[in-house]
Specification:
This protein has no helices and 11 strands. By secondary structure, the protein is mostly beta strands. It is globular and about 40 Å long.
Length: about 120
């Protein structure tokens, strides 16, 4: 069974930082690219970052470029998102996402709230 379990969300002040983690199981993590997607209240899901299977290539949405960094540790089957200089508009539920040979999978999400 494929599982993606996010953690690391919380309440942070504007300008602060958080590091999200996503632990994967049930598939060969190192074989697949991974993404982070977020959904703000009342809005659709927004892709924000992706990384290839080896961690050598990354991409970012303009809304987070220069502030967020995606990375992965294939030995630990874990995907990360380092979020710096957080803004109130970053408030959302953050999901990790995998497109695998077995199907497309989402984690349960972790809430990030940026507020003073």
């Amino acid at each position: 069974e494929v599982q993606l379990v996010e953690s690391g969300g919380g309440l942070v002040q504007p300008g602060g930082s958080l590091r999200l983690s996503c632990v994967a199981s049930g598939f060969i993590f190192s074989d697949y690219a991974m993404s982070w997607v977020r959904q703000a209240p009342g809005k659709g899901r927004e892709w924000i970052s992706g990384i290839n299977n080896r961690g050598t290539s990354t991409a970012y949405a303009d809304s987070v470029k220069g502030r967020f960094t995606i990375s992965r540790d294939n030995a630990k089957n874990t995907l990360y998102l380092q979020m710096n200089s957080l803004k109130p508009e970053d408030t959302a539920v953050y999901y990790c996402y995998a497109e695998t040979a077995y199907g497309n999978y989402w984690g349960q999400g972790t809430q990030v709230t940026v507020s003073s």
